[in-house]
Amino acid sequence: MVHVKAPGKMILIGEYAVLEGAPALVAAVDRYAHVSVVPSETQFFYLSVPAVKIDKIAFQLNEANRIVFRTGLTVNQRRFLKLFVHVFEHTYKQLINSYQKKLLPSTFSLCTNDFYNTSLRTKLGFGSSAALTVAVVNAMFRVAATDRHLTLTHEVIFETALRAHRNAQQKIGSGIDIAASSYGGVNRYKVNTVDPNEQAPPEPLVKPQNLSILPVWTGRSASTKKMVQQVNRYKSANTENYQSMISDLGQISAQACADFASGDTAQILAHVRNYNDALKAFGERTGVDIVSEPHRQLARYAVEHAFAYKPSGAGGGDIGLLFSDRTAESEKIKTDIRTMGYTPLEVQIAPESAVTRQKTNEV
User: Considering only CA atoms, which of 215, 243, 191 is closest in space to residue 320?
Assistant: First the structure.
């Protein structure tokens, strides 16, 4: 049996600018996608996903190594499984073409319940699709590597998962979430805008000890894909203005990355405040409500108390991050946030990567 889990992510700084080649900071978080694989007792593969009521549904691969399910699926099930199908097919073909490994029929079980908050009754925006992609790739490689002739590394998992995820998402996104799920910890990430197929791995960094980062749920979900598409439409129609604003965001993010690496917490807080202001202006110009009213209210609270705050990810809703250099006041900050009507989240940085977080029992 093989069981792996891959962590989720939260972007610390660099949203939108990272898409154009600016460095960004991302942290892996202790919300995990789980994948378990056991040998099949028949000639078919099987898939179980309790979240969408799929219980050991059979599938096989045709001559083109494409998945063919043997029974019908609901619209909701097909929508959920679209990612798995893309990732499985891409990884299966790579195992054959690059490593001459053919995966034997197996039973896959997928679980992303960690990303669903039962008390809030919502899925939190910590990158469940990227985490699941990394976990599936990792699991498939581990099953194929049971004869010990295939060496698993962070780079192999990252490169495979990145290409599979980009294909599944119609090449929208930077891959920063895949980097977090593949490597764990905090990383500086920079997209290769010249040749995306030659993406360099992220650079690991250490969070300053006196820096506290508190994720906050603002009360509503937001669609990253739709917001990025709207920004891209503005980019096509207003290239010069877009590039100017992206340059401003990129410079702030680069400075924040450098000060994070050197451990200068005071400067990190200043960069976060500046980035939030620049994101607000960027959203107003592009017509995308990135720094929405909940984010603005939380940012005002942060400034009043000499903290710093910004949305994490595409913005609009979902999750924001409150940065503080006064770690002893964390409980008071949480109480204040609850009083404002928002929810502080008990989420920690996950230090380990998908490659190290696994169990393998040969049967």
Answer: 215
The residues that bridge with 205 in the sheet, in sequence order, are: 186
pTM for this entry: 0.93
Q: Domain of 20: which CATH number?
A: 3.30.230.10
Domain region containing 169: 2-206+350-360
Q: Which residues pair with 32 in a beta bridge?
A: 7
The residue assigned the tokens 């942060």 is 302
DSSP assigned state of 200: P
Count Cα atoms within 13 angstroms, Cβ side, for 6.
31
Q: Tokens in use for 293?
A: 């009213």
Cβ atoms < 10 Å from Cβ of 101: 20
Tokens 């699941």 belong to which residue?
132
274-293 pLDDT, tens digit per residue, is 999 999 999 999 999 999 99
CA-CA distance, 45 to 215, in Å (whole number)?
39
Contact 250, 17 (CB under 8 A): yes
| Strands 203-205, 45-49: pairing kind | unpaired
Q: What is the pLDDT of residues 132-161, one digit of tens each?
A: 999 999 999 999 876 556 677 889 999 999
| Strand locations in 14-131 (E) | 24-39, 45-49, 54-61, 67-69, 106-111, 116-117, 122-123
Q: How many structural domains does the chain have?
A: 2
Same domain flag for 195 and 256 = no
Q: Are 189 and 127 in contact (CB under 8 A)?
A: no
**DSSP structure class, residue 122:** E
